[in-house]
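Quarterly update, task 2.4: adenosine monophosphate-bound model.
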Amino acid sequence: MNVLIVGSGGREHAFAWKINQSPKLGNLFVAPGNAGTAEIATNVNLDVTDFEGIAEFSKKEDIELIVVGPEVPLVAGITDFFKNDESLKSIKVIGPDKQGALLEGSKDFSKNFMVKYGVPAAKSQTFNLSTLEDGLKYLESEKAPYVLKADGLAAGKGVIITSDLGEAKSNLKEMLEGKFGDASSNVLIEQHLSGIELSVFVLTDGEDYIILPSAKDYKRIGEGDSGLNTGGMGAVSPVPFADEAFLKKVEEKVVKPTLNGLKSEGIDYTGFIFIGLMNMEGEPYVIEYNVRMGDPETEVVFPRLDADLLEILDLAGQKKLSEANLEIDPRTATTVMLVSGGYPGSYEKGKVMTGFEELEEVIAFHAGTKDGENGDVLTNGGRVIAISALGETMEKALEKSYRGAEKINYDGKYFRKDIGFDLKG
Ligand code: AMP
Ligand code: GLY
């Protein structure tokens, strides 16, 4: 089977790495990919929202299955584009259509969905510029800390949490006046949830589902979870506090009502649902849905799958997920993200990377890299490479990830040295 993966990050490299192990695989392509995917697949120079280009390429190369990595093409309707075209509809696309993608594309939609289907979540109200005064009054009636969320996609930057009422008010005004463009023309003011976060990943074909290993990512740039938010600086799977009893609650109180809700809304959903959860005194609350796998969570979830991922995705595409076999490696997987100096602020690209040949006992998932002209690998993004490893314990896995992180070098390299700090002992 010929497969096309859409995207260019560590997540897409992890998809390519896992799919590449399948005996069912014919040719593997990644659009646009990175220097890591180029080693195991053919990169195709197409933008993730160039649906015409992706469609034309898919016909030319007899692609049977497309995995969509990031949210942007899903929210923009890549799945609808294939479904609604006679000559493309036989190609299985793993990822929801536009309607399903609203679970991530609109936080107002997803909050109403959670309320309607009884999924536990923080209480919230949504405001726009014409109801700004009501929003300001609402803030006054709420307790600190205040959580403001842009309704639309804002590349992970659309959430502001502050304990200062004045700051919350000025942020609400700025957001509604266009701080995040159209994404913040509606803003949710949400009850603050305190607890410990984790992510649970579900693959569904609209009828059946499988729950993948849980993971925890480390979003802040600085140690001890300080400083600005990033795309993710590292991850661990499994999450020790997410024991069987807690995960059973997640399945009963969150996963099942979510999938029932999708069905009741007439949303035919084939793809991943990434559920961001807060564990509050042993009870799960949904912080957000994403309609794709996480990055860097995929880089710790997939190394733990003892399964033919391509076969599972193919079954999902045929609505036969009930036939899928999935074994989970009981070991712990960790990943440490190496980033460019200055990230998540401005940073330089094009730095020569060295040390690949010294890596041992790790899987290096490229995130922002590209091939240079004379065989060098160059940095090409804020997040550069994720060093994943498996170990009998989290400490043993981290030891390997960190040994690998020391081996790779480039000008401006930075990584957090405390991944997993809150999960120890
Ligand atoms: P999101 O973009 O919805 O994932 O939010 C980004 C981060 O903000 C989350 O990972 C949480 O750490 C935090 N966050 C979002 N909503 C809440 C909330 N209601 N209470 C506490 N923290 C939150
Ligand atoms: N690591 C968080 C995300 O993929 O959204």
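Highlight for this quarter: The chain has 13 helices and 25 strands.
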